[in-house]
Design goal:
This protein is about 80% helix and about 0% strand. It is mostly helical.
Length: about 110
């Protein structure tokens, strides 16, 4: 047979699977956007709490206990990766707040 006499017909199941995979990746992208928005909101709230604490509305020991509780909560839920994630979130809260557009809660 020659190439001109054959017609390639893709597997319909493969097309359906590819479409489903595209939908799943789109949903992952939406979840990622939600996670980033939540991180921005959390970081802004942490900075706000820091300003209040420095203004005399809290103490350093309370801050340390809260950080340990965050670490424990994330580690209990996600194991070692949860600990790494909590550490990253805590570190984001310690840095300077770049601008309201970046973190959303200044």
């Amino acid at each position: 047979m020659t190439a001109t006499s054959e017609t390639f017909t893709p597997n319909p199941t493969a097309r359906t699977g590819a479409a489903e995979l595209d939908r799943v990746f789109d949903e992952i992208d939406r979840v990622d956007a939600e996670i980033l928005a939540a991180i921005r909101r959390r970081t802004g709230l942490v900075h706000r709490a820091g300003r209040l604490r420095r203004a005399g509305h809290g103490t350093v020991p309370v801050h340390t206990r809260r950080e340990m509780a965050v670490l424990a909560r994330f580690t209990a839920a996600l194991g070692r990766d949860g600990s790494a994630l909590a550490t990253t979130l805590l570190r984001l809260g310690r840095g300077p707040l770049a601008d309201a557009a970046t973190y959303g809660q200044d």
